[in-house]
Specification:
5-stranded antiparallel beta sheet, single chain, S-adenosyl-L-methionine-dependent methyltransferases, 16% helix, elongated, 1 helix
Length: 88
Amino acid sequence: MKRILAFIAVVASTSSALAGDWVLGVGISQFHDNNANSTSLFSAEVHSNPFFTRNRFSASFMGVVTAHSSGDVFVGAGLSGLWNFNNQ
């Protein structure tokens, strides 16, 4: 877990000028299977500035790291879409 937090700190310090938004989350994954253990989790996402905007929709690149207290880690990258429900 310490290595994951160190990795997030390095990424945050080197790419914050390129990022449009950071999203941090803490929570619990609760499974309803009797054989599964519920675990706490930490998640960090970084979203670039939008490369496409039309009306109320914008698209950007994003990356995510999610770490569970059980030792499971998810790292992903892809596209993120944002739909602005406010007409401004």
